[in-house]
């Protein structure tokens, strides 16, 4: 990759924190939503951009699929959510089940509009990126220059290999990696209480150490978490063990934010 091109692009004034993963299905959208909620609970005025343009899931995760965003001066007004985090997503514009099959320029245009919405004094914006290291990610990194990136991976080897590619994309573009989050780590059986590790355990933390990037924490594989997410009530807004896991991770991101611009 030609990093010279990346470094000449303009930088958004408000901070953007990219949440990325090397592959889909590792819980990147779930983590983005709950990280934003936990940061808001901690007193940050955050906004959430659903940059997974072709597969938007934030409206569902926040239970606002039927809400239409307003517009003023040709700019979108983000949708307020019960969990206290405003979101901007094409998911509230395109009916569920309808394909969003847009080509590169349209995707880039949509991303610009979401980032350029009426965010008031929200800072930072959390960006839920599409999985992988393709066009949208590259445009995002080149044009919008996020202040930092959070990488989500499961403990699985394959997910970790892909996560390393995502890390490399940001590293080459000079975007600091805030750290790695291990999702779906360990499953506590609700019947016998025994913890098992369907995807292995500790792989992401070991990988983070090897790569010299901070480890931000792990989120257990949790039936409650999935049920709450499906119901449109982010678990980080509640009081259970899942909320505690997100609170701990958000605390580390909060420390990074304070050290990098306040
Ligand atoms: P991605 O954005 O990486 O594609 P999602 O956030 O959409 O992944 O998550 C994929 C599926 O896995 C969703 O059904 C979600 O509810 C579920 N999920 C994510 N994290 C967890 C977890 N820690 N425990 C249980 N289910 C999870």
Question: How would you summarize the topology of this molecule?
Answer:
Elements: H1 3-8, E1 16-20, H2 28-41, E2 47-50, H3 58-61, E3 70-72, E4 75-77, E5 87-88, H4 104-115, E6 125-128, H5 135-144, E7 148-153, H6 157-172, E8 177-183, E9 187-188, E10 195-196, H7 203-211, E11 215-219, H8 223-230, H9 241-259
Parallel strand pairs: 1-6, 1-7, 2-5, 2-6, 7-8, 8-11
Antiparallel strand pairs: 3-4, 9-10
Helix pairs in contact: 2-9, 4-5
Adenosine-5'-diphosphate binds at residues 21, 24-30, 57, 131, 183-184, 219, 221-222, 225-226, 229.
Structural features, described:
- The chain has 262 residues and is α/β, with parallel strands linked by helices.
- It is built from 9 helices and 11 strands.
- The protein has helices at residues 3-8, 28-41, 58-61, 104-115, 135-144, 157-172, 203-211, 223-230, 241-259; strands at residues 16-20, 47-50, 70-72, 75-77, 87-88, 125-128, 148-153, 177-183, 187-188, 195-196, 215-219.
- Strands 5-2-6-1-7-8-11 form a 7-stranded parallel sheet, with helices on both faces. It has a two-stranded antiparallel sheet with strand order 3-4.
- Strand 3 (70-72) and strand 4 form a beta hairpin.
- Helix 4 (104-115) packs across helix 5.
- The radius of gyration is 17 Å and the shape is globular.
- The chain starts with a helix and ends with a helix.
- Adenosine-5'-diphosphate binds next to helix 2 and helix 8.
């Amino acid at each position: 990759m030609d990093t010279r091109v990346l470094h000449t692009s303009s930088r958004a004034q408000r901070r953007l924190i990219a949440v990325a993963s090397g592959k889909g299905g590792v819980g990147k959208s779930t983590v983005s939503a709950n990280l934003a909620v936990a940061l808001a609970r901690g007193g940050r005025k955050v906004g959430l951009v659903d940059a997974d343009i072709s597969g938007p899931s934030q409206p569902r995760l926040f239970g606002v699929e039927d809400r239409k965003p307003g517009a003023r001066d040709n700019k979108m007004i983000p949708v307020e959510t019960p969990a206290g985090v405003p979101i901007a997503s094409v998911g509230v514009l395109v009916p569920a089940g309808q394909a969003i099959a847009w080509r590169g320029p349209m995707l880039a245009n949509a991303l610009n509009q979401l980032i350029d919405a009426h965010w008031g004094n929200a800072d930072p914006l959390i960006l839920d990126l599409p999985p992988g290291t393709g066009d949208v990610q590259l445009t995002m990194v080149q044009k919008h220059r996020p202040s930092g990136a959070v990488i989500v991976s499961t403990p699985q080897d394959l997910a970790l290999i892909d996560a390393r590619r995502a890390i490399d994309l940001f590293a080459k573009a000079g975007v600091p990696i805030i750290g790695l989050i291990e999702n779906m780590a360990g499953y506590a059986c609700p019947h016998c209480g025994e913890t098992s590790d369907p995807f292995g355990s500790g792989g992401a933390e070991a990988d983070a150490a090897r790569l010299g990037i901070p480890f931000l924490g792990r989120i257990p594989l949790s039936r409650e978490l999935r049920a709450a997410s499906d119901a449109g009530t982010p678990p980080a807004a509640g009081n259970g063990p899942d909320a505690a896991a997100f609170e701990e991770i958000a605390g580390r991101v909060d420390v990074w934010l304070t050290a990098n611009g306040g």
